[in-house]
Amino acid sequence: MTEDFWMVLMIVGGLSFMLLQPLTDRLSRIEAKLDRLLALQGIDENKWQEPSAEVIKLARAGEKISALRFYRKQQGAGLKEAKEAIEKYISPNT
C-alpha cells in the first residue's frame, strides 16, 4: 500500500508539473508584454502616489472631473485609483 501511495503521488506530481509549466510560461510572456506596453506609454506602475500640484489645485477649486482626467492622464491610473488619490484633497478638512 505504501508503494502504491508513493507511485500515485509521483504520477500526480509529474502530471501537475506538466500541466502547470505551460501556464507558468504563458504568464511570464504576458507579464513581459505588459511591462513593455507600460514602458512604451511611459507609465510607471509604482508611480500612483501623490497627485501633481496642478491636480491638487483643480481638485481644491472644485474641478473634480478635470482633476480626475488630468491625474489619469499623468499617472496612467484607472478611474478608481484616480478618485481615491484626489478625494482627500476635495474634502472639507483640507
Automatic annotation (TrEMBL):
Does this UniProt record's set of keywords contain Transmembrane?
yes
TM helices/strands, residue ranges: 6-24
> Which keywords belong to this entry?
Membrane, Transmembrane, Transmembrane helix
Top-level taxon = Bacteria
What protein does this entry describe? Ribosomal protein L7/L12 C-terminal domain-containing protein
